[in-house]
Design goal:
395 residues, 14 helices, TIM Barrel, alpha/beta, 10 strands, eight-stranded parallel sheet, two-stranded antiparallel sheet
Length: 395
Amino acid sequence: MEKKGVNRRNFLRISATAGAGALLIPGAAASTLNKTETAKKTAFPMRTLGRTGIKLPILSMGVMRADNPNIVRAAYNSGLIHFDTAHGYGRGMNETMLGNFFKDKPRDSFILATKCKPEWPLSDNFEKEYTDMFDLSLQRLQMKQVDWLYVHDLNDPAQVKNERLINVIKKFKADGKTKFLALSMHANNPKVIDAAVEAGVYDIILLSYNFKLNNLKELDPTIERAAKAGIGFVAMKTMTGGREDAEGNKKVNAQACLKWAWQNEHIATIIPGFTNFDELDECLAAVGNTTLSGGEKEYLAALCNEEGLYCQQCGICLDQCPEKLPVPDLMRAYMYAYGYKYAQLSKETLEELNLPENVCTNCDTCKIKCPSGFNVGRKIAAIAPVRNIPTEFLS
C-alpha cells in the first residue's frame, strides 16, 4: 500500500480535500472593520481577580489575532479595560501594535498582560535569555511595567515549581517590571493548578475553559480550591476553536459559549479573540444577558457529541503514535488554522515542534484512537504542509 506521507507534492491534493486552501490566501481571514470607531460604553458586571484585588469586567480582549488597532480602539471605547497579548504573537508585532495604541492613553485606563514562554529544558543561560525576552516585550509595549506577566504554556507541575524560573520572575516583580505573576496552561491538568497554589508566587492562572471539557468534575473543584487560596482565573478557548465542525465552516454560537463559562463564579474574566466589529458586538451582546437560555443549553449539549476543533490536550494519543509526534500541539495548530483562520500562528506553532520533514510516512493508517473522536490522521495531513508555505502567503 502507498505510504501516506505529507510533503510539498501532495499538499495541494490534501488542502483541496481538507479545505485548507482558503486559509492560505492573503486576506481570507481579513477583519470586516467597516463601522465607525465611536462606541457606546457597555455596563459590565465586574468580578475581582483573586488576591490581586483588581476588579475586571467579565469580558476582556485577547489581542492575539487582531492586527488592526481599530478593533482594539473599538473594544477600548466600548468599555473593555483588560487586553491580553504575548511575546510571540505576530512575531512581536502584536505587542508593538498595542504599545503604539496605548502610549498616549492614561495608564490607569487599561490593564495589560503579556506572556513569555520558557524553552524546556532550561538552558545554562536561561536567566539572561528569559530576562532579555521580557525586556524586549516591555520595549515593544513602550511600558516600564505590565500589570501581570504570564509564564506561558506551563503544563507540568515540575515546571511550575522550578526554582530557577521562580527566582527569575520574582526578580521581575521586585524590579517593578510587573505588578503580579501568572502562568498560562493549555492542558488543563488540575495538578498544575495545585502546583501553582503550592508554589505561592503565582497570582493569576490563564486556562482553557469551555463546555466541551471532559474533566470538569475534577477541574471545577480544583479551581474552587485555588480561588479560595487567592488565585485569580482568566479563561481562554471558551469558544472551542470558534467553529462547530471539524472543517471550520460553521461559526459557533459565541454568546452561548461565553454565558456557559460565566456560570463559574471563579472565572473573573474571559479573553475572546474577536477580530472584527461583528464579533465584538456579539460578545458585548452576551454581556447584556448572561443567563443561558434553555435553547442555548440544548445547543451546547448537542455540540458535545461533535468532533469539532477543540483538543482536550489530554495526551492519551502520545503513547499511541508510533512516530512519537506531539499530537496535542499538532491539533492546536489545526485549530488555529481552521477555527481561528489564523494560519500564520499555526505555522509558528508547527515551527516550534521540530517535526521531521515528512510526518506519518511510516503509517498506512493512523493508529490513534482519540477519546474526543478526532480523525487525527486527517488533521495532521491537513495541517503539516502549512510549514512549507511562505509566511507572506498566510493570512
